[in-house]
Amino acid sequence: MKRIMLTLTLLALVPACSTDDSTERTRSCTEAERLEYATTVLSRVFHNWEQPQDLAGVTCLIRVKQNREGEVLGVAFQDCPDEEDVRDSLIAAVTKAQPLPQPANPSCFNEVVKVSIEPYSN
Q: Regarding beta strands 112-119 and 72-78, do their DSSP bridges make them parallel or antiparallel, or are they unpaired?
């Protein structure tokens, strides 16, 4: 079985509230805290992912929308093959992972996270 690498990025999208304190909230999250949060979410999704048999060369980008409690509100695919087994396995992994972990620093929370799946290379 080919090794697969997952990466996760927290998207800086429009904050849930549009008050000035939301901008300050974003600035108070350090890069180390953001990385810790991303790693925690990614680990939870990865541990719940039952990978399809043949993932050779598969790359996929998914966007996961969540609420403050970590409940998944939606999963959207971008740059992902139309292979149903890959998509179904990723949706199942995200669904089983909920509620998604919350950041240690609440100001690091982001309602949209992006998960990238790509072949692992040394």
A: unpaired
Q: Which residues contact 72 (CB under 8 A, 6 or more apart)?
A: 64, 65, 66, 94, 95, 97, 98, 100
Give the pTM: 0.73
Q: 22: which 2 tokens?
A: 């939301």
Provide CB contacts within 8 A for 112, sequence distance 6+: 10, 11, 13, 63, 64, 65, 66
Q: For residue 98, what is the DSSP state?
A: P
| Total domains in the fold of the chain | 1
What CATH number has the domain bearing residue 95? 3.30.1150.10
Asked whether 42 and 115 are in contact (CB, 8 A), the reply is yes
Report angle CA 82, 83, 84 to the nearest 5 degrees.
105
pLDDT of residue 113: 87
Range of the domain at 31: 4-119
Give average pLDDT by consecutive 10-residue segment, the chain, 122 residues: 53 37 58 88 88 77 92 91 85 94 91 78 52
Supply the pLDDT for residue 57. 72
